[in-house]
Amino acid sequence: MRAVMSLVALLGFMAPAHAQSREVTGQAGILGEWELTATVTQRNTGGTEEFVGPLSLKHVGICTVDGPEEKKGELRLRMSEMSTRVMGTLLIDGSRMHLQRRSEEPR
């Protein structure tokens, strides 16, 4: 879990059929050795879009033993209507990790 705490996440939003849920994919870890996938559902809270949903992390690095390690958790993303910045929280095994980046999707 320590490698995930040094998060280098590249999150990408894939365009949804409806604006209510989105697929999130990316990589985490110093070498991008964790594959991140989540399906988040949109909630509007006073000018801020929030997306929350279940998260899956799969260790895809070459050092895995007895198959890939998998972790489950929750992903929370917040996007302000006035900014292109995405702020997020990953909740995994009782640990909380924060991240932020600029959205590549025009608002």
**Helix content range:** under 10%
Largest sheet: 7 strands, antiparallel
Subunit organisation of the chains: single chain
The dominant shape is elongated
N/C terminus separation: 33 Å
Please count the helical segments. Answer: 1
Biggest sheet strand order reads 1-2-3-4-5-6-7
Unreliable segments of 5+ consecutive residues: 1-18
Radius of gyration: 14 Å
Proportion of strand residues: over 45%
Structurally, the number of domains stands at: 1
Order of helices and strands: HEEEEEEE
Question: What's the number of extended β-strand segments?
Answer: 7
Secondary-structure-based class equals mainly beta
Instruction: Indicate the mean pLDDT.
Output: 77
Describe the structure.
- 4% of the residues lie in helices and 58% in strands.
- It is mostly beta strands and 107 residues long.
- It has one domain (2-102).
- The protein has a 7-stranded antiparallel beta sheet.
- The longest helix has 4 residues, at 2-5.
- Residues 1-18 have low confidence and may be disordered.
Strand-helix topology:
Elements: H1 2-5, E1 12-14, E2 21-28, E3 34-45, E4 48-59, E5 70-80, E6 85-92, E7 95-102
Antiparallel strand pairs: 1-2, 2-3, 3-4, 4-5, 5-6, 6-7
Short description:
This protein is 4% helix and 58% strand.
List keywords for this structure.
mainly beta, 1 helix, 7 strands, 107 residues, disordered N terminus
